[in-house]
Amino acid sequence: MEYTPPPFFKRGPSLLARLGFFALLSVILLYADARFHYMEAMRKVIAVVLYPLQELADTPGQAASRVANFFVSQSYLQRENDRLSHENFMQAGQLQSQQALIAENRHLRQLMELQERAEQTSTVAEILYVGRDPFGRKVIIDKGSSQDIEEGAAVVDDTGLIGQITRTFPWTSEVALISDREQVVPVQVVRNDLRAAVFGIGYDGALDLRFMPVNTDVENGDVLVTSGIDGVYPPGLPVAVVSNIERNAAYPFAKITCTPAAGANRNRQVLVMSRLAPLPDYPIAPESKKAGKTRKARKGG
Amino acid sequence: MMRSPMFGKLSGSEEILLPVKPSYITLTLLVALMINLLPLTGWLLGLRPDFVALVLLYWGIHQPRKIGFLPAWLLGLAMDVADGSLFGQHALAYSVMMFAAIALHRRVSMFDMRHQILHVLPILLIMQLIVLGVRAAAGGEFPGWWYFLTSITGALLWPVTDVLLKIRLRQRPDPDEA
Prior knowledge:
- Chain A is 35% helix and 23% strand.
- The longest helix of chain A has 38 residues.
- Chain A is globular and about 95 Å long.
- Chain B is mainly alpha-helical.
């Protein structure tokens, strides 16, 4: 007869085996997510499940701000109203001249047979909360794929570029700020049209203008705007102002620090720009050998 | 050890508590998840302990039979989606934490509160180190030493967690009630 242990000693697989199983499962998921981004669909499903909980968690803060709004003093409102109507008046003048400029620009572009500048639509969104992941700088906004927000769209506030939509969920989306370490923005110096790239360094209030030679023509106070050559950010959005330049001949590049023009911590309202029309295809070199290589390189970048 | 913990002040184990219902464990975990989802910013966010980890650790130590790896793993995935971090990093960290909790549950519950904190702190630190390791492997950079503050606040909140989670278990049924 076979010996079987009494049922009350049966406890299933050992603790270590169970840990091994779940750890292996996690590592497989991690690898699939980090390397191949296979988990986005799964993420969306869980995000929908979590959405009511998140709404519930946001309620106290929103209620508090609504109460605070209710008790705003009349003098404050009056002052704000005065300021806004003054601003509106100033901007109306600029807008009128801009209409003429837009028409003129279109006409000139037609004459020179250049491509038309794409008209952009934008959606107003509100920042819900700051991303909790300490390894990146993200914010979550209250518009998602159900409001036609697309991944890759640029996000701006009233003074300049804030970041880019990196992930969309049905009712919310995630914005990677330009101060995120993994964000790079192609920019142009307004004064002399010099093109460069601005890198985030992981905290607010500073950006790096990297890979500029020591003798480069950049000065303190230069305004940097998006150049638009990446096909992601529309051209001409203010990004940063150069605040400090260290030219040390011992290094190949100058160390240029900039102050961002906008900041996610300044206002709650942001504008999500629509995606640009896709750029024309990358010109493929005539040799058949090189053609495959170029296409591959483009895919990777 | 000079003094056997058996002669020290025993905590928790000398009280007679009501049996824990699985629904109560689920409820506490959901509440912890909701506290984790609170929209905090700045230094408050930097100090906020991972309440889901704390409550999971608590139940892992006090009710190892009623909680296992599966809830820890699933809550880890939920936290990954909520934080927008790599899919599986919290799941891995919570699984390892649950292992430590179940493996050490007899030992930890023998100590008094101060010594329990000294057990909880390294477990929470190991959990954060796993997350750090995963992110470093995926190309992330060290965010700064303040990153570990949440473990310290979490360990300091361990007695509060203990008191809060026991409130419901202390109520004794009225013997006169039929």
